[in-house]
Amino acid sequence: MMRYTFLCYFLPLFAVGGCDSQAREEAVFTEADTKMEVGRNVEILYSDSALVRVRIQAPTMRNFSDPEDPRQEFPDGVQVDFLDDRRQVSSTLTARNGVRRVDKGAVTVRDSVVLRSAKKEFLETEELIWEERTGRVHTDKFVKITKPGEIMYGYGLEARDDFSYWKILVPKGRIKTEQIDNALQE
What we know:
Blueprint: H1 2-28, E1 36-48, E2 51-64, E3 71-74, E4 78-83, E5 89-95, E6 97-101, E7 106-117, E8 122-131, E9 136-147, E10 150-160, E11 166-176, H2 177-185
Antiparallel strand pairs: 1-2, 2-3, 2-4, 3-6, 4-5, 5-7, 6-7, 7-8, 8-9, 9-10, 10-11
């Protein structure tokens, strides 16, 4: 009888305590919480005809699965390597942050954007958009292009992602590096 009384007093306490714990666990996660995933030290590979064409690396990626606005954000910097048919890097794009719009197939990078080509050409700008489907990059912001022996700048740019072809939409001038060297020596 003593055992039965003991169970009658404590069993209801365990049942109530268990329900309370379960309710707290359910309240921790909401639908809004599950719409974002975070990845660390991420590498994304894009292939075409079984050849890797693009490699994206980032220390942090936030993947938003919201059907209204699906996107991937790279808040701590991003590096995009464009590869040729021999899997050699033909150009590299770096920026302090970026956003990939999944439904549009476009990656927008901002803040200290640099695109380096294998030919030692450098593009510097504050914003650049890479169209995944066409393999083109473009911007309407100020751009500076440095080639061996020359610096060009202006507003707006259209280019291939491997930087084999590019044009500044509104060029503002050219500076030969010899002119800079001479001016610095005087």
